[in-house]
Design brief:
With 276 residues, the chain is α+β, with helices and mostly antiparallel strands. The chain has two domains: 45 residues; 218 residues, outer membrane lipoprotein receptor (LolB), chain A. 30% of the residues lie in helices and 35% in strands.
Amino acid sequence: MRKQIQSPDGLNKLLTNFSIQIQLQLSKDAIMKKFIFGFFFTASILAVCGQTQFYSTVKIEFEKTVAQHAMMKELDPEWYDFAKDHVAANSVSYFDFIADSTHSVYKPGREGKVEQRNWFSELGAKNIVFTDFQKNTSITQKPVYEETFLIQDSLLRIKWRITPDTRTIAGFQCRKAVGILFDTVAVFAFYSDEIMIPGGPEGIHGLPGMILGMGIPRLHATWFATKVQVVDIPTAIIHAETKGKKTDRKDFLDALNKVMKNWDTWGRKLLLVTQI
């Protein structure tokens, strides 16, 4: 038998079909490589993004600590020497902060660990601060001894400088900022941008995230978050108080100044305590 010899036309068709098959296979391989690359690239991006979550509602318990001995010694050294053995070195109280992206309320929480037994500890111990971030206003119910004031005003003006320092508070990575309040009062704050609320204890605000730790040396006081809840937040209870003598910040301070200026030097120092 003689072998069948293919014609040139048949050989060309064979080569053409073979070339097309190779190109199709290469095309499939390229598509598969692109798909695999795209899959892993997208997965890596999602993994990185998934490591950081952001929250727009929150409930925080703050532990407020006041160095009572240091405060007493500054107000009146002679009285400090007499009373220091009868008063705890530090007082501890708790406040709750509840907020969404537009409003917040800060109010007294559970009983403190250390009972406050001095006349100046009552100042600020029962403050309830409602903040409207959209309107840039606050309404603060502030009991001062025998009288309760309802202070309606714009938010406090604070000049902030953000630093590279960081620390972890209640499981959140926080960045440190230093602020100036009332032109001379230093405020040290640690905020987390994972909580997208520009608020903090006692109406302190203005940072690109929630303040979870704060200190005011002039008041010998610190506030630090002990519990942070970001789901199932009872935002319906966020509202302003309505009881109290209505006033603004200036008239409130003027009224107190008239009384406290007769209380010797330490009386005037207490004005700062009542402002925050």
